[in-house]
Specification:
Pfam families: OTCace, OTCace_N. Its EC number is 2.1.3.3. GO terms for molecular function: amino acid binding; ornithine carbamoyltransferase activity. This is Ornithine carbamoyltransferase. One of its GO terms (biological process) is citrulline biosynthetic process. With 313 residues, the chain is α/β, with parallel strands linked by helices. It folds into 2 domains: 136 residues, Aspartate/ornithine carbamoyltransferase (Rossmann fold), CATH 3.40.50.1370; 156 residues, Rossmann fold, CATH 3.40.50.1370. 42% of the residues lie in helices and 14% in strands. It has 13 helices and 9 strands. It has a 5-stranded parallel sheet. A 4-stranded parallel sheet has the order 2-1-3-4, with helices on both faces. It is globular and about 55 Å long. The two termini are 23 Å apart. Bound molecules: phosphoric acid mono(formamide)ester and norvaline (NVA). Norvaline binds next to helix 6. Norvaline (NVA) binds next to helix 6.
């Protein structure tokens, strides 16, 4: 029989809730040091991490997760690869597939990620594109549920730019069944085709230009930088987004016990004040830590850890 297609982790919208829940369960077991993930199940396997743009959390959390699972890591900067001087993405995928067992890519271009995945014969993981950041959302769902319990039926308020992280929150709302309120200036709303997808999936996404309206009674308030890595810097984004800053007055309008989330890096004094980021409702460093645990779950799922044992039972 032909070999089974690799299990890519490209976007939450490509995966079922059951698959995503399974990865989170693996991630929680890794965090707790129990089960097969505590037995170095990826001994002898290798992961390539390709970065076309900067990273602190994604780079370190993938490297540490893979090593703790017993595997090896090769970290590559695209500009030091032949990829940076014209070798095609597809040829790069074919070659790397002969050396490593999984490839993570961080790139501006979602099309490049798709090309890599279609030519690779090993799993490909999205380490952020200009369109999405699904690894972040796995850590975010884990973090929300640790602090506030099951996310199904709850309300999350996003304030600011409808960027890559916001788009993955939309995918997550559809898959995990929570209400997502997005407060954004009209010019920086999510693309209509993504909203149409979400509504066809039965997701509840509410758009507003009022951050107060978005956060009223919300269980979590989330934001991100006003200028993402692929955005041209300019004052207009700042002017448009200033009214969406998450500050103490805005947080006070959320539900009692609401948490504040941010994928980091934060631009203190812009999208969020020090008072909120360092305040009692902030869970941003738990979120950063959970990148490690959630991605251990993603790696284990992509590489089929524990499945031979399950199938034999
Ligand atoms: N949140 C996140 O992806 O951080 P890095 O850019 O540091 O990887
Ligand atoms: N939206 C940000 C996220 C960084 C982790 C960016 O793309 O720069």
């Amino acid at each position: 029989p032909p070999p089974a297609p690799p299990r890519h982790f490209l976007d939450l919208c490509d995966l079922s809730e059951a698959e995503l829940r399974h990865m989170l369960e693996l991630g929680r077991a890794f965090k707790a040091g129990r089960g097969v993930l505590a037995t170095r199940p990826l001994e002898g396997r290798a992961l390539a991490l390709i970065f076309e743009k900067p990273s602190t959390r994604t780079r370190v959390s993938f490297e540490v997760a893979m090593r703790r699972l017993g595997g090896e890591v090769v970290v590559l900067s695209a500009k030091e690869m032949q990829l940076g001087r014209g070798e095609t993405v597809a040829d790069t995928a074919r070659v790397l597939s002969r050396y490593v067992d999984a490839i993570m890519l961080r790139t501006d271009s979602a099309a490049k990620l798709a090309e890599l995945a279609s030519a690779a014969t090993v799993p490909v993981i999205n380490g952020l594109t200009d369109k999405s950041h699904p690894c972040q959302l796995m850590a975010d769902i884990m973090t929300f549920e640790e602090h506030r319990g099951p996310i199904r039926g709850r309300t999350v308020a996003w304030c600011g730019d409808s960027n890559n992280v916001a788009r993955s929150w939309i995918h997550a709302a559809a898959r995990f069944g929570f209400t997502l309120r997005i407060a954004a200036p009209e010019a920086l709303r999510p693309p209509p085709e993504l909203l149409a997808w979400a509504s066809a999936e039965g997701a509840v996404i509410e758009l507003t230009e009022s951050p107060e309206e978005a956060v009223a009674g919300a269980d979590a308030v989330v934001t991100d930088t006003w200028v993402s890595m692929n955005d041209a810097p300019g004052t207009n984004r700042h002017n448009l987004l200033r009214p969406f800053q998450v500050n103490e007055a805005l947080m006070a309008k959320a539900a009692p016990g609401a948490i504040f989330m941010h994928c980091l890096p934060a631009h203190r004094g812009e999208e969020v004040t020090d008072g909120v980021l360092d305040g009692p409702q902030s869970v941003v460093f738990d979120e950063a830590e959970n990148r490690l645990h959630a991605q251990a779950g993603v790696l284990a799922w992509c590489l089929g850890v524990g499945e031979a044992a399950r199938a034999a039972r």
